[in-house]
């Protein structure tokens, strides 16, 4: 028996086994880093990446990633904290704004009853207008802060056609007042979607209300069976660029008019939260707002 | 409401002696949950079940929404750190070596933050001292350091202030509050020292004989601890009679002192007492102590 | 499991029980060699000395294994390990592996020491092939010893109980091995006549198997430089190792830990 050869073979076999196991453990660690990294990026957890290997380079990779994850979590926490504080401040502020506004309205009511000259009456009329604008701005501010905060979405199965119909009906009075006869085209069969009813109502009422405010005198609402809804109205005082900015917070076309820009912005937030999309287009003097669910 | 831990009718029998008898509890996320009970009420048994040291005889629980039957419970437990009964530390190693063992078990890539962790619990100056030469307080703190090694989201502490000196108790309390606030760690503390818990806990769970007697938040507890008026009179038996006539709840403490658990019309009461030759020496408003509330719930001392 | 193995190997390296058992075995080896070299009337060949310390091997290893695993229970660190383990059996297997590795290391070091140092004091009648063969058989014996005591300690769950149980078992195994050995070494013919103490047939087979299954019996065969049924010994060892480990994992998974 050739002993030296046998011994060399035995040693080589051991070395191969050792190397194979090292490769196996390294591959396992790579899989672990991959899987855990995906998880830790999105999950709300303090835990970080852990690996099986003790290889110097694998450890360095994992610990560097962990360092960044830690920073990310701190940032996220800071942001959430700041966001929460801001919302709280806005909510409190809008609450606090109501008090003096109510008082102002009260005194205005009293002033109405007093004898006054024509100039005073005219001035009072403007003051009253501005106060109402201020009140509605405060309301919108308050509602915006509630919308932006993470609310529970309660998705139920609902017929989108029916909900749109109901919203249009509720605006019947306002439409009649402005002499707008809407052209409505809805699918004959129900369109079922899993959405939050309150949010959808809010979206529709904001958009319809907005369309009524900006419209020159017409409104057309179409809905296709794949739940794409388009609201179109003639709006001569717009252009393409302005249309794109309609969803920006507080952007309003006519600053002098009795409106705030928040309605469309709230609609956008809600649509996106439900997993849909919303765009505004301006073609041939007509503004179209399209929602896709 | 997000719950870190929910149990549903958990049962555990040791040789036909029921240690847990249908325990249902809910630990909200981000809270400091004080788990209160007499010795032998089943607190440690519950903690053992949650940590997977023992299997329940009946019922179920879920951690972060994952049921204890499923295989993923391992991932949920990975987010936990626990000190059950006594701190789990190797007596023949130093503090740093113990932490190194824990880091290896967890597979954490970097041992650089061991000194920082030791500093957090106040053990940075132990050097080469072996654990068998540690004081009880130092051992408790090392146990917590080991529980914190994996950056947990849920910390389970079994009577953490047991055997600590007053300074240690304060430091422990500060540390728990800091961890809860800065790292959003939910803490479950089991204890029978109510006084200390009342300074920490945001929620309470009162357990007796293996069942949950009551779960309530700190605000609810404050509301429930009844206010009373402590009266010092010349003769409590006369007071008792008068109060019985007024259908007022009271408790006699001694021959001259009694607690009255209702808003009494002071003038009417004093006049009625004076008519019966009983003098009112003093009246004080007091809050019912946590202990007496607890005893009233649990009916202790039987 | 890999993580736990790593942690436990580091603990093994630092373990007082491991070092102590190694030192004790080496000391015993030296003592045996000294006695054999000086106190015997006849010259003892090397082959009879190399595996002589193995008689005490079972006892030493029982102490080491039960102390090593028992520390996990008494210090409570097992609670931390079970919390992070993906499965109870992983912990059990990890402990078994570390323990039989420790046993194998002690075996290798002691045997190498005996063979190496003994060369200078005893007549070298050892053939390399024989040595390698017996070394391998002894290696298997060390693994069986490690498995056996690990499983007992895991099931027992209490350090002091486990130490007592394991050492007691080791002692019983030693006595049993001496008994079966005395039965089996009786030749058929003694001083020309039929030996009444000679056992035959079924009883002989039974005793033989018992002698082979018992690690102490294996050790005694090795120390007399004569293994009667090496193939059978290995064939018994393998299922013994697997069976014990499986049983240990199963029983441990059901166990309540304090």
How would you describe what is shown here?
The complex is a heterotrimer of chains A (293), B (302) and C (258). Chain A is α+β, with helices and mostly antiparallel strands. Chain A has 3 domains: 3-77, no CATH class; 89-148; 155-292, Histidine kinase-like ATPase, C-terminal domain (Heat Shock Protein 90, 2-Layer Sandwich). Chain A has helices at 3-42, 56-113, 118-148, 160-170, 172-177, 197-214, 240-244, 262-273, and strands at 155-159, 183-185, 192-196, 220-223, 228-234, 277-283, 286-292. Chain A is elongated, with a radius of gyration of 31 Å. Helices cover 62% and strands 13% of the residues of chain A. Chain A is built from 8 helices and 7 strands, in the order H-H-H-E-H-H-E-E-H-E-E-H-H-E-E. Chain B is of the alpha/beta class and 302 residues long. Chain B has 2 domains: 3-223, 3-Layer(aba) Sandwich (Rossmann fold), CATH 3.40.50.300; 226-298, 2-Layer Sandwich (Alpha-Beta Plaits). Chain B contains 11 helices and 15 strands. Chain C is an all-alpha fold and 258 residues long. Helix content of chain C is 79%, strand content 2%. Chain C is built from 11 helices and 2 strands, in the order H-H-H-H-H-H-H-H-E-E-H-H-H. Chain C has a two-stranded antiparallel ribbon. In chain C, strand 1 and strand 2 form a beta hairpin. The radius of gyration of chain C is 20 Å and the shape is globular. The mean pLDDT of chain C is 88. The B-C interface holds B 14, 48, 51-55, 74, 77-78, 80, 82, 84-93, 97, 100-102, 104-107, 146, 150 and C 3-4, 6-7, 10-11, 14, 16, 71, 75-87, 254, 256-258.
Task: Write a brief structural summary.
The complex is a heterotrimer of chains A (293), B (302) and C (258). By secondary structure, chain A is α+β, with helices and mostly antiparallel strands.
Biggest β-sheet strands, sense, barrel of chain A = 5 strands, mixed
Question: What do we call the CATH topology of the largest domain in chain B?
Answer: Rossmann fold
pLDDT averaged over residues of chain B: 86
CATH class membership of the largest domain in chain A: Alpha Beta
CATH superfamily of the largest domain in chain A: Histidine kinase-like ATPase, C-terminal domain
**SSE ordering of chain B:** EEEEHEEHEHHHEHEHEEHEHEEHEH
Question: Which percent range describes the beta-strand content of chain B?
Answer: 25-35%
